[in-house]
Amino acid sequence: MRTEPPRTALLFGVLVLLLAAAVASLAVGTRTVPPAEVWRALTDAPPGDGTTLAHHLVIREVRLPRTVIGVLVGAALAVSGALMQTLTRNALAEPGVLGVTGGAGFAVTLGAVAGLAGSQAAQLGLATLGALLAALLVYAVGRASPLRLVLAGTALGFVLAGFSLALRMTLPDVFDTYRFWVVGSLAGREQVPYLLPLLVIVAGLAGALLAARPLQALGLGTEVARTLGSRVRRTRITVLVLITVLAGAATALAGPIAFLGLMVPHLARRLAGGSVRLLLGLCMVLGPLVLLTADVAARLLLPTGEVPVAVVTAFLGGPVLIWAVRRYGAVTL
Amino acid sequence: MKVEEKRAREDRAPEMGSPVVARPPLAVRIGPFSAAVERRGAVAAVVLAAVAAVLAFVGLCRGDAWDAPGEVIAALAGHGDAAFVVQEWRLPRVTAALAFGAALGAAGAVFQNLTRNPLGSPDVIGLDAGAYTGALVALTVLSGTSVQLAVGSVAGGLAAAVVVYLLSLGSGLGGLRLVVIGIAVNAMLTALNSWIVLRAELEVAMAAVGWSAGSLNGIGWEDLRLPLAILAALAVLLAALARPMHQVAVGDDLAVTSGVRLSGYRPLVVLAGVGCTATVTAVAGPVVFIALAAPQIGRRLAGAAGVPLLPAALTGAVLLLVADLTAQTVLAPVALPVGAVTTVVGGGYLLWLLVREVRR
Fold first, then answer.
1. CB atoms < 10 A from the CB of B330, how many?
2. Is B176 close to A259, i.e. CB distance below 8 A?
3. Do B340 and A160 touch (CB under 8 A)?
4. How many domains does chain A have?
5. For residues B56, B57, B61 and B63, what is the CA-based torsion angle, rounded to 10 degrees?
6. Chain B residue with Cα closest to A309
7. What CATH number labels B48-359?
8. Which among A25, A140, B128, B178 is least buried, having the fewest CB atoms inside 10 angstroms?
9. Which residue of B has its CA nearest to A159?
């Protein structure tokens, strides 16, 4: 039996790292601003002088919203992945790899082409619906086998990618606006209204923490959970709803980002021991940490412009999938 | 339906002593050479070749306006107004579809035999993406001549094959584990490819983006000379390897006892398979699905026990021609890259494959 790591110290440590990543996300970019100036931009009233004003504007109007979106999207995807892995007891489960975020993105794209995705609420609804349909389809095809679920998700990804490409070629104008729903990115999302999805994510994260205890009981097996007084069916449905809402809202904000929900829960599980609640709590801090770091890297990888963050997470996440396959393979968690 | 009947018959045959007795293979003798030819396989090959020929002719007739068959035949002989269009535009494209489809089908058969897994095809396990990385490097770092593209893509494909192989060591070549590791490698390479494309200068990037979906648009004879020569050489190599390949597909032990040198055979057959995929990728970009589906469809049509090469290659040619005709026609006047069609159909096919496997 491993000794439990000191929880407060652990949470404190990762929070400090997250803070550093957030500062980097505010400071780094085409126009790199020193941290002290970042602090002044956030606290002081805008000054009159030219370059400083420009710095302050960039930080307040572009990088601050981007960082906030990054934090919540990262937390949502990581928690969604952790819930999925715990619910299905599948080490390879993840909303991106299993095609759930891809389905959400494609639903928003289709809605946009049909002229339905005008409002925030419509986008959110479409994304969640797409996520739900994709999850049900992939689960119906893949059943309980971890490896087969990955294959089903990949196959669904193939189909959706082909349709997206056909749409992009036929309707270049419509599609240009919705391009980030094909490859997830945090860039250019600050200008779009984002309040509703953010609130939904916050509610979803709170719901996940509340569902942690029954989910932990479920992890002991259906029979044991029943004996402990847990309502198995209700727990399962609640968790499925949480998974799709979190993945859908994250996709509505930033487009499909794969592998984040795979990497972070594995990392968090090493630190959390067996507690589901601590696992989810750690995911809420580590998810944003990884996503913000990847986003800062995405800004630095090109001399001009930036790489979509989903490209960076795919490159980081591939090795984690390989490790997880080799470590767990077809066995359940 | 035919396939299902056939499978039912196969399933029944051993224990019930089914009355269906396979007819003996046909003996073909040409001078000092002789070969045993399975009747059904031979019929399937002839039919597939005929279908491919008809589709190729349809492809030659297809333009913004359809040309009458008579005119096209005249144009092939060098007469009439359409001669230039048919000979210089449509003929290279149709040739490319035939040759590349056959190469992809054969490559798929090679890897499905090697991994003994219908999912272990080069497009699923990341070899296409690796070949594409190699081609992109040749295009952006070097000057991008067709020799560099060919060498770069073969090197990239081989490197991807080695990485996937090394990572799945200890879990056996077969099974889904290798496939999922291949999918992870594929995801990383795809990410790397999009980074290279974004980093490259704009004109190069534009060319590469159209190409990244896999496309036969705008292919001319000058793009085809080297690839066709390479594919012809690989076809000879594969024909020589066909017999040991089927021996190995039955089992390593059996292959060794029946005289196959595994250590010499494996690298050669991997080289031939990667060569086929990479040559196509260097010219047309990654075209998925053909390598995945053609060997399985061809195998059922030929009623063969293993995954034979010839039906796979012929089916591949037919599939790529159909996909290319569809891509040109379905959203006309927009000419889709053929990869868009094959991706959709391939994903659907993969899902169906999984559903069927679950039901069994």
1. 14
2. no
3. no
4. 1
5. 0
6. B191
7. 1.10.3470.10
8. A140
9. B344
